[in-house]
Design brief:
mainly alpha; Heme Oxygenase, Chain A
Length: 354
């Protein structure tokens, strides 16, 4: 790795959080969580800080302070911060703060993202609608750029950006398992079983990606590069966490996973090609190679047996299924465009302020 790449390292891993605050809200939240909770409400000013952050943001989706704060709050549920007391997870002030941020984030996404007209709530019709949505012509392709043009340093940035979700793959979607029933739950478990390596640690997709990072010369500890990635990268994970952790949004998390799986196989083949082009072998490309085959199978399960079956079983969720799918494509598209725009302009895609 180059000296520039090594410069993009997170702060001391002995700290409570592996990244600095990005504004008043995340600073207050990190200070609070660095202490021990007690029975009294320890955060009387948190609601005001949330209100002020939302009011000041031009876009909640791209606001560094808001997206980092959401990442921290969701991290309490994932166990992302080992030094933070588990007692904070359901502290009422923190739940209220997360709820307020989610309302603003969700409202902005619903106002911004175009959702197609719903088809009939049948497996075949929903699968066809999702196929049309996920195969629509888009803008310039990040995967094609990686395959044909990306430099070694840009490939390192790509891994760092993707590590925020992929080292936790597929936890955000797994929140939906107890929120679903019957054949829909079975379909989700079938997909997630593969994601978790069918019970074999070395085959877990998150662990295969960790091996990719280590083989490329990067740190594979979760959260190590959070300080380096922008708000839009955090937003691509936060939208999954928001959908998965809220039962009322179970349709959206199903739609998100369907779109995620239906747009994975071909890009991952291109990512593998990009690393191979620069001389990297299977120790680096195995993660992407795995998804070329696995997600081609998952695509059919996700479209018909998961999203389509949920629409048949609970037709009132069809709108949210399509919203979740569209949100996946749009937010991940924004994150990809951020990288592509930076690289084609000759800049790093990583944050300058860390």
């Amino acid at each position: 790795m180059t000296a520039t790449m090594h410069a993009h390292k997170a702060q001391d891993s002995n700290a409570v959080f592996p990244m600095p605050a990005r504004g008043p809200l995340s600073a207050e939240l990190m200070t609070l969580l660095s202490s021990a909770p007690d029975d009294a409400d320890p955060a009387p000013g948190l609601a005001l800080a949330v209100e002020s952050a939302i009011a000041a943001a031009e876009s909640t989706t791209r606001d560094e302070d808001i997206q980092l704060s959401m990442f921290v709050l969701y991290g309490l549920h994932y166990g992302s911060f080992a030094s933070v007391s588990a007692e904070w997870e359901w502290q009422p002030s923190l739940v209220a703060a997360r709820t307020a941020l989610e309302r603003a984030f969700e409202a902005e996404l619903r106002a911004t993202i175009d959702v197609p007209e719903p088809p009939q709530p049948t497996r075949a019709a929903v699968a066809q609608a999702l196929s049309a949505l996920t195969t629509a012509e888009g803008g310039p392709s990040l995967s094609r750029y990686v395959a044909k043009q990306a430099t070694e340093e840009q490939l390192g940035e790509f891994l760092m950006q993707r590590s925020v979700y992929t080292l936790r793959e597929a936890d955000p979607h797994s929140w939906a398992i107890p929120r679903l029933t019957g054949r829909v739950k079975a379909a989700l478990v079938e997909i997630q079983t593969d994601e978790y390596g069918s019970g074999r640690f070395a085959r877990m997709h998150s662990e295969i990606f960790a091996t990719t990072m280590r083989s490329f010369g990067l740190e594979s500890r979760y959260g190590h590069y959070v300080a380096d990635v922008p708000a839009i990268t955090l937003a691509s994970l936060n939208v999954m966490s928001m959908f998965g952790l809220n039962r009322r949004l179970r349709g959206a998390i199903v739609g998100h996973l369907a779109a995620f799986e239906m747009t994975s196989s071909i890009p991952n083949g291109m990512y593998a090609r990009g690393f191979s082009r620069l001389g990297y072998g299977t120790e680096v490309t195995a993660y992407f190679d795995e998804h070329v085959a696995a997600d081609a199978v998952h695509e059919q399960i996700a479209a018909h047996d998961l999203a389509g079956a949920l629409a048949e079983d609970e037709p009132e969720l069809l709108g949210d299924i399509l919203f979740g799918a569209a949100a996946c494509l749009v937010v991940d598209g924004w994150a990809g465009s951020h990288m592509l725009d930076a690289w084609t302009a000759g800049r790093s895609s990583l944050r300058e302020e860390r």
